[in-house]
Amino acid sequence: MIHSVRFKAVLDTNVIYPVVIRDLLFWFAHFDLYTPKWSANIFGEWKEVMLRHGVEEKEAQKRVQKANLAFPDAIVENYLVLVGQLELPDEDDRHVLAAAIKTNAIVTNSLKDFPEEYLDIFGIKAKSADDFLTDIIDLNQEQAIKAFREMVLNRKNPAMDEYEVLESLRRNGLLDTANYLHALL
């Protein structure tokens, strides 16, 4: 069995929200398929997105705390000093790259905001959630299926079966991931 917990990736806000993408990323991390990383800035953005989508303040804060409790080593420290030195198409994404410099990768669905040639300077790779998750499945298909099945079993509000979750993944841009998992079921 190949373990990839040594592989670390900063999760951008746009892969932490929507819920179904975050759930799969978190379950894969729970099953030690990789180590998630994030910053206070990323979680601040996540909280803002939740509030804009009608999540109550107390519930949003609870979700942030729950994620930090589940993965206490995920928070990246001492990255803010780098932000002012970085140049990206969207200046608001500089904190994501700064946090990633402390790790080795970014999982984002805004690849255009992280130009490959600029990231190469820092030895950083950016991947879409779909590509990142299919790579993880490639590394350890058995663990990935276990993680997926556990996610489905713990799914509430609404409860869904495996095929409904796969369809939800497809609707949220994880077409290759859903098809790969489906083929392994």
TrEMBL record:
Query: Where in this chain does the record put each PIN domain?
Result: 8-108
Ranges of residues in domain VapC50 C-terminal:
129-182
What InterPro entries does its record include? PIN_dom, VapC50_C
- Organism (species): Pedobacter kyungheensis
A Pfam family of this chain: VapC50_C
Q: Source taxonomy lineage?
A: Bacteria, Pseudomonadati, Bacteroidota, Sphingobacteriia, Sphingobacteriales
The name this protein carries in UniProt is Nuclease
